[in-house]
Structure formats: C-alpha cells, structure tokens
Amino acid sequence: MADDTSLDVTGLGKLAKAIPAKAWTTIVDTACATFRDAMAPFTATTSGIGRLIEARFDRLVDAEKVLAAANVSKATQKAAKAKKPPSGNAKASIVIAAIQASGCETDSVLRELWSNLLAQELVAGSVHPEFPHVLSRLSSYDARILAWVGQREKDKTATIKRALASMVANTASLGFIEIKAEATFNTEQLIKLNLIQEERASWSLTHTGRAFIQAVSDPSLE
Q1: 65 close to 57: Cβ distance less than 8 angstroms
Q2: How far apart are CA 146 and CA 144, in angstroms?
Q3: Model pTM score
Q4: How confident is the model at residue 206 (pLDDT cuts 50, 70, 90)?
C-alpha cells in the first residue's frame, strides 16, 4: 500500500504520523471494509456502477478514505431506515461526488448534509446533478441562514416542513442567528446560488432553495 500518511489531508496527516504504521494500516483497512459493506446492498444489482464507485473510492488518499467511509456508512444507515425502499436508480455521478466531498470535509454540519444528500440519492435517485455543486459552495453558516429563512416562511408544504426540521436539527449546533434586512456576504452567496431571494425587505426561499433543502434532508425522518 502506498505511504499516503505523510499528506496532511483535512488535518488528518498529523494524526496519521502520530499513529504507528501498523495501527494506521489497520484503521485504513477497516475503513475500506466499512465502505464496501455499506455500499454493497445498493450496488449489488448494478455491478458496473458499483465497480466505478469502488474505483473512485480506491483513488482517495488513506486519510480521505477514513473520513469518506464514516460518512458513507452513516448515509446508508439513513437510507435503510427510510420508509420507502431504495429505488435502485442512484446516479453514479451523485454518489461519487458525495463520497469525494465526504473525504475532505471535516465540518460536522456539512458532513451531515453530505450524508443526507447521499442517502436521498440512494433512496429515490432524484437528487439533481447541480445540488452537489451547490452544497460544495456553502459554509455551515450559509446552511444555517438557509434553514432560518425557510422556517420563517408562512406557506410551507408538509414535505418542506419535514425537510426543514431535518436541516434545522443538523445546523442547531451553530446556535440562534438573526438575519438583518441589509445584505451580507452570506446572503449574497445564497442569492447567487438561487437558494433565496429578496422579497419586501425580507428573504424567502426560491423554488431551487426548497428543492435543495429537500435534497439535503434526512430521508429517515420523512
């Protein structure tokens, strides 16, 4: 196995150096086994896609594999707990994007949203290809603002209420925030991504914003 432990990927490089080589190899091997066990039920009937996903996972640096495997395991557990069975239509591009992002993301809020997005794709296969790109451009504070805007809307469908409940739970660790009427960099970023819009000196979700919130909600809570 290549010696990737010298690379400081998302802060894990130093940790890898502090762990004896044999122990680190065991950690990485366990992560690889965890990943394959977690993905097996969803790739068993799509061998071609399964091989592609495994090949992309194998290209990750060892430290990235440890992070990615943990998040994939969490996502598959959420998918398994969802009320409807997996559709079998998960798109390889979405799954691979979520795995790669999970391998280099250490923010707990964003990791949770990535696991939700992957779980949603495994269950319904309906995540839009643009949404991994959108999520990759958000900070955890941006996500908190988006959830805050959604909560303040008066006319919410039952589906968006459940999705918001999941997103608020994921961003609760950031505490209470209040959005002022004037624009900030964070609100400008959300507008640029077409997730929120200015409306009567306030903010509201766009159609894209509502669909995105659903895409990063936990399917096991729906």
Answers
A1: yes
A2: 5
A3: 0.83
A4: very high
- High-pLDDT (> 90) share of the chain, %: 47
The structure tokens listed for 170 are 């994921």
Going by C-beta distance under 8 Å and a sequence separation of 6 or more, which residues neighbour residue 191? 183, 197, 198
Residue with tokens 């802060």: 11
Q: How far is CA 23 from CA 26, 142, 192, in A?
A: 5, 38, 45
Q: Copy the structure tokens of residue 74.
A: 């969490």
Q: Cβ-count burial of 15 within 10 angstroms (0-12 exposed, 13-18 middle, 19+ buried)?
A: middle
